[in-house]
Design goal:
- By secondary structure, the protein is mainly α.
- It has two domains: 10-284, no CATH class; 356-667, no CATH class.
- Helix content is 62%, strand content 6%.
- The chain is built from 23 helices and ten strands.
- It has an eight-stranded mixed β-sheet with strand order 9-8-7-3-4-5-6-10, with helices on both faces. A two-stranded antiparallel sheet has the order 1-2.
- α20 packs antiparallel against α22 (608-633).
- It is elongated.
Length: 676
């Protein structure tokens, strides 16, 4: 399949952002080297891992590349760098030229001290101080971790290191104290679970080496596997007792069932299909690949405009006229923020916050700007213009339809029947205008292109705050479009392109990100949706009132005519005058209900009431999150841990995605049509 160009065109001196790099992201979890089954079958396990990695590489080579061969980036492996499964997978990945990324449960030095498994507190303290352990096996384990870590991008969850280090050393100082060992085990397991959650979210497929005994051990391989399946991520399960008989899983319920013969016979095909779905959007895999091409062309081939056109402001003029604002006839021209200007414009506060994070990746702000914000600005500008075309087209169609009907009968009081042709011609021109608008809307996919690019823009809008915290939407939790899936595919790969930052998450880091979340996203979006809800409620109410008013005028005009006619029958009114006015009243009897119906049609099409409800609910949810953020901001550092903050970030992400899904549900089926 011939790929699209990765670089978007330069239009009107606007340099559009490049398309994202496309890669597969694999997560690996599994038993340590000392696990009896791993120890007994280590060579076999590593052989199976090597075969799986080669299968993945082959599937990538065979997958259709929508953006061309140069869009493909090295596969990325996520692992916690623990000895055994993690390190074996990391060595295999390095040999294949894959990228290595590791979300560590602790800061790098504490992680090293714990996973080197020293026999005594003295060696643990030595490692924590940056020195070598005296015990040779401990020193070898530490060096093995360091060797891999030097080739790995590390994301360190160090915000609770002081507490964890204290519990760890206390345990080593009292090796026979079960309570102290349990206290450390519980806290460290929670941290491992958080790192495991990051690993799942950053990966397209999870590979788990697990004995199948228990998934209740928090932070362990079984727990990570079960969590991945709960989040909708596909997984490959390797039982160390029988590595060759690995399985592909898609649901947590599969863990309780024995493998079917058919599934095992087709597992390689299934893995290849999963990789193909990662590399290429679903619609592009089908026989007809045009849908994905057409969709991406809304980004790759779209003409950039610096501002909106006055010719397509009809829908927004309706909002201005009936939205309850005083400036009803204000200019509605919108200036679109260029991708190259967003860093100094609307994105400045967010980028400054990312740059000023203590211990942050020094390159993260630039990567966010280049790979997320510029793409947001581009998609937002395109989507806004397409929205104007589509929604204005439907509004104009309703109004032209009403004018055509009225124009067809307007000759009655004005000219004799032999001169009706002029009015018929007027009606024909208006009807032809409806046909042309509808044809252009369908030909150029105003509705589809708007829908797709708006989804892209909204996903990108809040993504930077997810990125700095290493948070991502799990692969199984992305919404699905009604007709296309490329917007989700596109954004997911763009965010994967950025990936986990090279950062050390400290209490100060969390304080700063919490503040940025509140100031740069939650509060502005809450205010936006609150105002939008008020405005759309007013539009709905006023349009409803106006259409009712026109209906009442229709009744009134008919009633007046009947009174006049009745008066003429009774001799109270001049009959000739009533006869002359009858045609005018006929026009009024058509005009008022026709325009009333057109206004009602616009109200139905715009669905202002439902959109107001969606924004109102969204504002309420964001306000609740804002309250939680404010409470957490005032809490002491130990209570403001990574897990609590990421819960709020996920909640914010869920609000955004739910709003997109609701918006799609309302407008998804309202394609531009002839208003009949």
């Amino acid at each position: 399949m011939e790929g699209l160009v990765r670089r978007m065109p330069v239009v009107n001196d606007v340099t559009a952002p490049v398309m994202p790099e496309i890669r597969a992201s694999i997560g690996v979890t599994g038993h340590r080297a000392k696990h009896p089954l791993y120890l007994a079958n280590a060579e076999q396990i590593e052989s199976v891992l090597a075969a799986l990695f080669e299968l993945i590489d082959q599937a990538i080579r065979d997958a259709p590349l929508l953006l061309g061969a140069d869009s493909l980036a090295p596969t990325r492996l996520h692992t916690l760098l623990v000895d055994g499964t993690d390190q074996a997978a990391a060595q295999l990945a390095l040999a294949k030229g894959w990228e290595l990324v590791s979300p560590l449960p602790f800061g790098e030095r504490l992680n090293l001290a714990i996973n080197a498994m020293p026999e005594n507190a003295a060696d643990a303290r030595a490692i924590l101080n940056g020195d070598l352990a005296q015990d040779s096996p401990t020193a070898r384990r530490a060096e093995a971790i360091n060797v891999v870590a030097r080739h790995t991008r590390l994301f360190e969850l160090a915000d609770q290191d002081k507490t964890i280090e204290r519990l760890y050393l206390t345990m080593l100082d009292a090796p026979d104290d079960f309570a102290k060992a349990q206290a450390f085990a519980l806290e460290s397991a929670q941290r491992a679970s958080l790192a495991g959650r990051i690993l799942i979210e950053q990966s397209d497929i999870l590979v788990a080496v697990w004995d199948g005994q228990s998934a209740a051990n928090i932070g362990g391989a079984g727990h990570t596997l079960a969590t991945a399946l709960d989040l909708g991520a596909p997984a490959i399960w390797i039982n160390p007792a029988d590595p060759e008989n690995w399985r592909v899983l898609h649901a947590p319920e599969s863990l309780a069932l024995p493998p079917s013969e058919a599934a095992q016979n087709n597992r390689e095909i299934e893995v290849s299909a999963m990789i193909r779905d990662i590399i290429c959007p679903g619609e592009a895999i089908q026989a007809d690949q045009s849908a994905a091409h057409r969709g991406l062309a809304a980004l790759t081939g779209e003409k950039w405009h610096d501002r909106s056109s006055r010719l397509v402001h009809a829908y927004r003029r309706i909002e201005a006229l009936f939205g309850g604002t005083e400036a009803r006839f204000r200019s509605l021209v919108q200036n679109y923020e260029k991708p190259d200007q967003i860093a100094a414009g609307s994105g400045a506060g967010l980028l400054n916050a990312a740059n000023s994070l203590p211990g942050a990746d020094p390159e993260i702000a630039e990567r966010i700007n280049e790979k997320a914000l510029k793409k947001f600005a581009w998609a937002d500008g395109i989507s806004a213009r397409l929205s104007d075309h589509y929604r204005a087209g439907m509004v104009v169609n309703f109004l032209l339809s009403a004018l055509a009907i009225v124009g067809g009968v307007l000759y009655l009081p004005l000219v004799s029947p032999e001169h009706k042709w002029g009015f018929a011609l007027f009606e024909f021109v208006l009807l032809l205008g409806i046909v042309i608008i509808t044809w252009r809307g369908q030909k150029y996919r105003w509705h589809g292109r708007w829908f797709e690019t708006r989804r892209v823009a909204e996903y990108f809008r809040h993504s930077p705050l997810l990125l700095v915290l290493g948070v991502a939407r799990p692969p199984g939790r992305w919404p699905r479009g009604t007709e296309t899936s490329w917007p989700e595919w596109y954004v997911r790969h763009a965010l994967r392109d950025i990936g986990l930052p090279r950062a050390k998450v400290t209490p100060a880091y969390l304080r700063a990100t919490l503040s940025a979340l509140l100031e740069c996203h939650v509060t502005p979006q809450q205010n936006y949706h609150s105002e939008k809800a008020k405005r759309l409620k007013a539009v709905h109410h006023n349009l409803d009132g106006f259409s009712e008013f026109l209906f009442k005028l229709a009744i009134f005009s008919v009633a007046i005519y009947l009174l006049l006619y009745g008066g003429s029958v009774l001799g109270l009114v001049d009959g000739d005058m009533v006869s002359k006015l009858s045609k005018s009243f006929t026009v009024l009897g058509v005009l008022f209900p026709t325009f009333g119906a057109a206004i009602a049609g616009i109200r139905f099409f715009g669905d202002f009431e439902r959109f107001a409800a969606i924004s109102e609910i969204t504002a309420e949810k964001l306000d609740a999150i804002r309250g939680r953020i404010q409470l957490l901001s005032s809490a002491p550092d130990p209570a403001r841990d990574y897990g609590r903050i990421t819960e709020l970030v996920h909640a914010t992400d869920d609000v955004v995605v739910t709003e997109i899904e609701n918006w799609q549900a309302v407008f998804g089926g309202k394609h531009i049509t002839v208003p009949v």
